[in-house]
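Much of what follows relies on a compact textual record of a protein's fold. The record below shows the convention in full:
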Amino acid sequence: MAKTIAISDDVYQLLSRAKLPGESFSDVIRRGMKRPLKLSDTVGSKTISKEDWERARAVIRNAEAETRKKLRKTLS
């Protein structure tokens, strides 16, 4: 069953640009909802500030570096 929703003009433009040939707007939305959410997706959405995002990214990078370091030590 089809439903009507109201979206702002800028969102309509975003959907139009994301739409592939032969794809419906429902398909675009479905495709967008299936992909995993990344931390960077929330930047600028007032969910997380750019500064907090940079700090979180630094923490993640440091944790990854430590993990790689421990793996190298374990494997050598």
Notes: The chain has three helices and no strands.
